[in-house]
Amino acid sequence: MTLPSILVTGGAGFIGSHTAVALAEAGYRPVILDDFSNSSQRALDGLQQILGYTVPCYTKDCNDHAILLDIFQRENIRGVIHFAAFKAVGESMQEPLRYYRNNLGSLITLLEVMLEMNVPDLIFSSSCTVYGEPAVLPVTEASPVQPATSVYGNTKQVGEEILRDVVAAGKPLRIISLRYFNPVGAHPTGYIGELPLGVPNNLVPFITQSAAGLRGPITIFGNDYPTPDGTCVRDYIHVMDLAEAHVAALQNLQKNSGNNHYDVFNVGTGQGASVLEVVQTFEEVTGHKLNYHVGPRRAGDVVSVFADATKSREQLGWTAKRSLREALADAWRWELVVNRP
Length: 341
Ligand code: WQD
Prior knowledge:
Blueprint: E1 5-9, H1 14-25, E2 29-33, H2 42-51, E3 57-58, H3 65-75, E4 77-82, H4 89-94, H5 96-116, E5 121-127, H6 151-168, E6 174-180, E7 182-184, H7 203-211, E8 218-221, E9 233-234, E10 236-238, H8 239-256, E11 261-267, E12 273-274, H9 275-286, E13 292-295, H10 310-316, H11 324-338
Parallel strand pairs: 1-2, 1-4, 2-3, 4-5, 5-6, 6-11, 7-10, 8-13
Antiparallel strand pairs: 9-12
Helix pairs in contact: 1-2, 1-8, 3-5, 5-6, 7-11, 9-11
This protein binds UDP-4-deoxy-4-formamido-beta-L-arabinopyranose (WQD).
Residues 87, 89, 127, 129, 180, 182, 201-203, 206, 218-221, 232, 234, 275, 298, 301 line the site of UDP-4-deoxy-4-formamido-beta-L-arabinopyranose.
């Protein structure tokens, strides 16, 4: 029996590669498109070890109409999960045109090809960053979208608006935007995980690299915030829970969405954790004493954001199953594998 092929753009990346596993486990055939500008061939090797077969991968640019058309035809693509985008917040402020061209240009090209090929189903990678500094917590999908504080964040907001408008125009598309909170962890086998290029911006990969002796002490960016322990609060979600949310969203589109549909879902655990709590949990779970100190606040950080994931539970039948402890244990196992000399 031929399994339905799903195109995973950016599928060699952190969330994309884990979603390829979840798709395969749910009876789909993932097909990866990735230009490897921010990912590694190592992810494909890891997928081979986990799945026992080679996931087809096209090392191409998602902005190229002809290339996308050829892949849709050659692979009989039945749906798309779109991760491919530049995502460095700081870099986006230095190079706005490159970010708008790549992140929004690729989305528009993809939508044009989907319409041309009569492929209606799309899951779009969005972010809780659209909520900015929420006035009320936890945030629901009805919480106000705040003016973006970075070009990267704006590409997510404008991306959602493009999707909403193209569906409102009556086009035969069924689309869900998933607003991720903070993805952390790795596949429990340790064969795939987060592979930040250069010095990690994000907390958990910096922690694991510091614990592995690859980095110096962790700097906690501020402990004078109005939170229980003074450090910022986030909703850290295991990357495999996040991956499974993409499958649940795709199945929701295929089952009961007519032929013209747009909706938005939060994908988070519903629990907030502070930076200090993450540090202390990592030490408990791994037995590793971390070396850290408190430094100045980081520009652009929101004080506290975490999800109300009720809508995803009620309408997608999805909830996060894995704990922060599990995510940190899996992240550490990956660190020990990926940096094995
Ligand atoms: C988490 C907390 C830092 C590093 C980012 C993107 C967001 C999304 C998820 C894509 C903050 C603190 C961090 C360090 C620290 N990505 N921290 N020392 O900023 O919540 O979200 O990743 O969609 O768009 O902005 O994640 O891991 O960078 O920071 O104290 O060395 O950890 O100040 O409070 P963030 P993060």
